[in-house]
Amino acid sequence: MINLTINDQKISVPAGTTVLEAARKLNINIPTLCNHTDLCVAGNCRVCVVEQKGARTLIAACAMPVSEGMDIHTNTLKVRNARKHIVELLLSEHRSDCTKCYKNQKCELQALANEFAFGDTIFLDLVEDHPYTIDRSSPSFIKDDSKCIRCQRCVRTCAELQYISAIAVANKGAHQKISSFHDRPMSHVVCTNCGQCVNRCPTGALVEKTYIDHVWDAIYDPDKYVIVQTAPAVRVALGEDLGYDPGERVTGKMVNALKQLGFDSVLDTDFSADLTIMEEGTELLTRLKKALVDGDKDVQFPMFTSCSPGWIKFIEHKYPEFLPNLSTCKSPQQMFGALAKTFYARKKNIDPSKIVSVSVMPCTAKKFEADRPEMRSSGFKDIDFVLTTRELAIMIKQAGLDFRNLEPVPYDSIMGESTGAAVIFGATGGVMEAALRTAYEIVTGREVPFSNLNITPVRGMDGVKEASIKIEGCTNDWKFLEGAELKVAIAHGLVNANKIMRDVKAGKSPYHFVEIMACPGGCIGGGGQPIPTSMEIRKNRMKAIYAEDEHMVLRKSHENPDVIAIYKEFLEKPNSHKSHELLHTHYVKRESY
Amino acid sequence: MEKKGLNKVGLIFEKIDAREALTKAFNMSNDEIIQQILDSGLKGRGGAGFPTGLKWKYTAAEKGPEKYIVCNADEGEPGTFKDREILDRVAYKVHGGMAIAGKTIGAREGIVYLRGEYRFLLPKLLMELEEFHKMIHEIGYDFKISYRLGSGAYICGEESALFESIQGERGEPRNKPPYPTTSGVFHKPTSINNVETLVTVMMIVMHGSESYKQLGTKDSRGSKVFSISGDTPMPGIFELELGMTVQEFVNEFGDGDTKAVQVGGASGFCVPRKKFTDTIIGFEGVPTGGSMKLFNSSRSMYNVLHNYLDFFAEESCGQCTPCRVGCQQLLKGVEKVKKGEVKSTYLNELIKLADTMKIASKCGLGQSVGNAFRTIVENFREEIIY
Question: Rounded to two decimals, what is the model's pTM?
């Protein structure tokens, strides 16, 4: 243990602890900007400078490891003056149109300015000196360099968590900026639109592209019938933007709010998540049969899940030779979209050209996914607008709803029915667990051999998780699987996906089925979720997801009555011709440079 | 040049038998070598002046089989050109100094990071290197040197940015600690030394620390190669004993009308005429990596300052706030003062900013921008304003 004093308070901490961490243990607040608990230390904004007795210069608390006998002061005149200067300097190269900024009151620079830089500005405005660009090319997010403070959180996120490096530092000195490959528009580089950079940007330099006004226009258009679906991970995070602690489930209140906003029908992506399990589970079993019984050499393993549009774009760019390994199933959002303007329209007797299909997603990549040319199976754009969790919170505030006092109400019918299996799609490992609950039962006629259906080995925050399940006592149709050991893996965060892909490429992967989610923690940590994010926050959301599952009466996808009904009335059976037409898709090879 | 005055020294460019010096070094224990360098009082010749013996002692004490000796030949300080001359004339002594360092700290590999603009020297240096490898092999010692070319950024002369650059990363300074002696290039213990330092080591081993200590002062032992430029009838490279005053220097190299000397390049200090007599060139006064620039009364110190600030606004790596934005503010600030668009008292705010940059920047670049700024603005305020 290392002994030091901070503001004359003694503390003992393990070696390797930073001064910042030690100060936090003493509840001494040192302001930070470039620091983020999910990322490596940068030490470049210098907002956290403190005074160390005997040192020639101030030290950056976030980057300085403690040492024996250190005497730190965090609030001396020298520190205050330097900190004020630093915040003023940042403001001088930041376009401060705060009142109109999307991040107004949610901006970390603004909060610091409020503490350190009120009154007359000291320095000259530098914004006018720089040829800033605002890149609106991505359907998912906007990159506004005039608001960038070069903290490089986005750069570290993209490299460390996502293994993409779509954005990196270019140029030096006054010309330094966060740029893309050859300064191309974000829509034309290797970017998965995952939005993890948006989640970590302290200012308004990276924000989602918002479709709030489009949705309001549709709602107020008397000719339109506006359907909304909400993804599983939204209900455990929306509360954070409306004054609740992380991990509060607000499902029923959210449904009520959506109705009050004026949506004609409030439905659940959980329905199509269950449908995904039926389609994807059947696809897996069919692939196994083709490989094991028919000896079809073209069938490759592992089969990968295809729910996460960030992951899809990742593999399209980086490992296109493995596109045949991807499940052909559309994501739950897009399955829902294809059915909304076909099956739902017919059942409800609505002209599909009048339907506006909106989805609320924890995700920015879903905005890109909805725009893909493949996603028009209904003859229309299957999903018209995608809102993030954050955007929904804004709409609720705009409408002046007293969210806390809203009565919880159930989803509308049809396509509003849900199971626990669908809910857990929102957390890493959830799709795998849901698939195993159903596939094992199809093959053996029995429930998965885990207490209370909880397949715990696939849960948790480890970057790569593995499990195997021995298949015994098969029914007659599936005898060829008797005694087989189904090996599965789960990865979340594309840096972990890449680990799996490296093994697959090297021919070292033993798995049959692999679930991959682009974002850390899965959809609960998605790029459209409330800001800030941290491991602790994501863990709380995850707990809420599994609590929601436990509280469900139905916890297996094949028991969802709406799912049973749609096969009976419309799709016939999983992987049927009709299913393929509406619920399955194909992928494209993209450049990698 | 033969007139009486400063003590010209011929140590760095002296021809020696490298094999003899190296054999002598290899017959000494590592502790003996370190002690000899410590005794000599040698401080790094790149400008920062860290005691070379200590640097080696720390690196030698690190465990682990993989260590490096890196020669910093990214000579980029405006007004410095002595390493170019040293490499051109006595590269064998640079290589020899690296071998001695390698033996002492336990490194089997040396890397020379050569300023990109010195590419023209490379064919000759590689030929010399081949000779060196042959010789060291014959002596029976296993040590290899390779050359890496810099890519043109001033910041890559900063040791940790230099390591990043060697590793193929963007040249940006690292957080310290850890220091290079524990985690340097490829994150292995590394001793990084300036070209001239390594040659000096070779000479100390050859002649002993006692004779070296005869030169210079208590805080600034030995001699140093100076790059002299500006308003002088004698521009060029001179090896001089340390400890002279600026006045003594100007007496010898000035043109009779010297109003200021910039000691240590853009990141150094401006000494005005009135302080010539009581300013010593060395670690007790104004330290320098070798750059000495003389200005006579025909020069506008505003232009001098503007030139330096323009340089820093361009050459800051841009990573940390005080340096990236601070340099731009200083530059734009003096421009506005000159044009009368802000009050002349704004210079006081800028001096405070320079002070913040000195204590809050991440690396030596940002920390030293204030040196020239403060000394020029304080001593030539009227030239900045009017």
Answer: 0.95
